[in-house]
């Protein structure tokens, strides 16, 4: 019994498309995780060296600024130096971490085509 009829007749092109999409998604997830890992590693290294230098426990070193820095390290974003390969189909369209209309990014993939009988117009 096939519970999902969409998988019954899958073409080779569709299989390749899904494989590419899966690889792209894994690459994106790895880039975001690596970026987050590097932010936390920087904070932890700084705090550990400060603990060794000043011979004070961690709870005495934590300030509101440090706690804010730790909380901001949780935000999903790609830091400088961490890039996604050019062959990846990912385009950032919206960044929910930004306020207001700044969250909407212009993407080279988002184009609206108006087709009339004689001309094709590209609107940005």
Rounded to the nearest angstrom, the radius of gyration is: 23 Å
Shape: elongated
Strand content: 5-15%
According to DSSP, the number of beta strands is 2
Give the ordered list of helices and strands: HHHEE
Q: What is the average per-residue confidence, as pLDDT, rounded to a whole number? A: 77
- Characterize the biggest β-sheet: 2 strands, antiparallel
Number of folding domains? Answer: 1
Helical proportion, percent range: 40-55%
Q: Which structural class do the helices and strands define? A: mainly alpha
Helix count from the secondary structure assignment: 3
Spatial strand arrangement across the major sheet: 1-2
Instruction: Enumerate the spans where pLDDT stays under 50 for 5 or more consecutive residues.
Output: 107-124
Query: How far is it from the N-terminal to the C-terminal residue, by CA?
Result: 48 Å
Q: What brief labels describe this structure?
A:
two-stranded antiparallel sheet; 124 residues; mainly alpha; elongated; single chain
Description:
The chain has helices spanning 12-54, 58-61, 64-73; strands spanning 112-115, 120-123. With 124 residues, it is mainly α. It is 46% helix and 6% strand. The protein has one domain. A two-stranded antiparallel ribbon has the order 1-2.
């Amino acid at each position: 019994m096939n519970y999902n009829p969409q998988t019954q007749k899958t073409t080779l092109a569709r299989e390749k498309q899904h494989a590419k999409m899966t690889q792209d998604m894994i690459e994106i997830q790895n880039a975001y995780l690596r970026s987050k890992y590097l932010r936390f590693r920087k904070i932890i290294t700084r705090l550990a060296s400060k603990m060794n230098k000043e011979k004070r426990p961690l709870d005495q070193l934590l300030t509101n600024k440090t706690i804010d820095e730790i909380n901001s390290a949780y935000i999903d974003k790609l830091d400088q130096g961490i890039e996604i390969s050019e062959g990846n189909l990912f385009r950032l369209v919206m960044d929910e971490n930004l306020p207001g209309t700044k969250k909407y990014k212009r993407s080279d993939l988002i184009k609206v085509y108006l087709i009339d009988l004689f001309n094709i117009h590209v609107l940005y």
